[in-house]
Design a protein that fits this description.
Number of helices: 14
CATH superfamily: Glycosidases
Shape: globular
Largest sheet: 9 strands, parallel
Number of domains: 1
CATH architecture: Alpha-Beta Barrel
Order of helices and strands: EHEEHHEHHEHHEHEEEHHHEEHEHEEEH
Structural class: alpha/beta
Length: 496
């Protein structure tokens, strides 16, 4: 029985992408500029990614937190740097390849595809009275193409970005102005796509508000960070309430980055510190999954120089909205695990390397059992179904002259992680709706801005500077994963 890897009937198998890493067409179809459009490319050797240039020549970063500086005037706008490559502008051009890419996904047996909608493609500045019809039509076309293959959309409404105008004018999510602007945007999506889309994610990796997350705030620390988080909590809850009313049988979540941490040793101080570190993430999950702030919220805020929740600007109705707008399921990304120890900064998002684990070239510890551990931790805590909406491995693929890649390392990674997932479902009885592997078709890495850090089942002929034919070629893992999906996970047991 322990070797049984077959998953429940109706399990959703698919892949996940983000518009600014995958879509391209940044200046087509009436799309406005987003906060990610100013991010430069980078590499391990030249880590300039997440930077932008201001009119006076000052280089600021990280860009996706917008401006981490106190002295930039409100009217200042970033500029594009001559000769600099901006990965989001072209990405891997799903904008013009969506039919081909969806057909490739369907060829593997995908019955779900998670993609994000570009806010600035629908509302170019975020403040228009009416949406951009060309932008709406593009996603209509994508969703209708998926329907041909009976592929379920899983839509991320806001994936780490916003129209640049909202970051400049309002200091991003630090302002409550964004709540109503976001809800207006979501309402348009529900009106247009609600008849074909039942699964929705309000935000991507919302707990990354503490790093280069989706906030758009200029000073991404202290009160701004947690004010932004609260405003996003309220916007999400309002959207969930509205979505349930507008779309019968719809299901809502927000996505969290939950690659986990272990204590470095069994020293009690290390174990206690690890609990505090984990609470940095649970703060977000608990509030949105349970519908109220957790008992330790003030402790988290005090650690970051905030007097407590009393310092957060809240409307009188916020508490009721959070309770009514609870999430239906908990979705998350899992890539790795790290360790923490007494004396580390609570804000050490990456933690330290685990000496018991092998690592990728980018230092990400390979820990399939950590996925099973995380699944159990979430369900024990929240008691709602979960959905693994990002998991995968970024490696350097060596393509032959035809673009074919023998990516055994990726197959081994997925074999181990999918087996751990199946064990959590079948042995630990964790209800899991589905699995969408990150980057089913090669795309630009968020963390480094590179193409050479590849995740996909399908190789895209493009280098770090956008050179190449963009030809799509299935890798060895494409055919391996096809068998896993055809067997609904049962074939995983053949390799145990």
């Amino acid at each position: 029985m322990e070797n049984n890897k077959k998953l429940p009937e109706g399990f959703l198998w698919g892949g996940a992408t983000a518009d600014f890493q995958y879509e391209g067409g940044y200046d087509e179809g009436g799309r406005g500029l987003s906060t990610h459009d100013y991010e430069t490319n980078g590499s391990v050797e030249n880590p300039r990614h997440h930077t932008m240039e201001m009119p006076d020549g000052t280089i600021i970063g990280p860009a996706s937190s917008f401006i981490d500086a106190e002295t930039v005037p409100d009217e200042a706008k970033p500029v594009f740097i001559d000769g600099q490559y901006y990965p989001s502008h072209k990405a891997v051009d799903f904008y013009h390849h969506y039919k081909e890419d969806i057909k490739l996904m369907a060829g593997m047996g995908f019955n779900v595809y998670r993609f994000s909608i570009s806010w600035s493609r629908i509302f170019p500045t975020g403040e228009e009275e009416t949406p951009n019809e060309a932008g709406l039509k593009f996603y209509d076309d994508v969703i209708n193409e998926m329907a041909k293959y009976k592929m379920e959309p899983l839509i991320t409404i806001c994936h780490d970005e916003m129209p640049m105008n909202l970051a400049l004018k309002y200091n991003g999510w630090a302002s409550r102005e964004l709540i109503d602007l976001y809800v207006k945007y979501a309402k348009v999506l529900f009106e247009r796509y609600g008849d074909r889309c039942r699964y929705w994610l309000t935000f991507n990796e919302i707990n990354a508000v503490r790093g280069f997350g989706p906030t758009g705030v200029r000073k991404n620390q202290g009160i701004d960070r947690y004010q932004a988080a609260h405003n996003m909590f309220v916007a999400s809850a309002k959207t969930v309430i509205m979505g349930h009313e507008m779309i019968p049988n719809s299901k809502f979540s927000t996505m969290y980055a939950l690659s986990t941490f272990y204590p470095a040793t069994c020293k009690p101080q290390d174990v206690f510190h690890n609990m505090q570190q984990l609470r940095e993430n649970w703060y977000f999950v608990d509030t949105m999954g349970r519908g109220y702030y957790p008992s330790y919220a003030d402790d988290i805020l005090l650690h970051h120089g905030i007097e407590g929740l009393s310092e957060i600007e809240m409307a009188t109705e916020d508490e009721e909205i959070l309770n009514k707008g609870q999430l239906d399921f908990i979705s998350f990304s899992y890539y790795r695990s790290n360790i923490t120890k007494d004396g580390d900064d609570w804000f050490n998002v990456g933690g330290s390397s685990n000496p018991y684990l092998k690592e990728t070239p980018w230092g990400w510890g390979l820990d399939p059992l950590g996925l099973r551990y995380t699944m159990n931790m979430i369900y024990d805590r929240i008691q709602k179904p979960i959905f693994i909406v990002e998991n995968g491995i970024g490696i350097i693929d060596q393509a032959d002259e035809n673009g074919y890649v023998e990516d055994d390392e990726r197959i081994n990674y997925l074999q181990d992680h999918l087996s751990a997932m199946a064990d959590a479902i079948n042995q630990d009885h964790v209800p899991c709706l589905g699995y969408t592997m990150w980057g089913p078709i090669d795309l630009v890495s968020l963390s480094t801005g590179e193409m050479k850090k590849r995740y996909g089942f399908v190789y895209v002929d493009m280098d770090d500077l956008g050179n190449g034919t963009l030809k799509r070629t299935p890798k060895k893992s494409y055919y391996w994963m096809k068998k896993v999906i055809e067997s609904n996970g049962e074939s995983l047991a053949d390799h145990e």
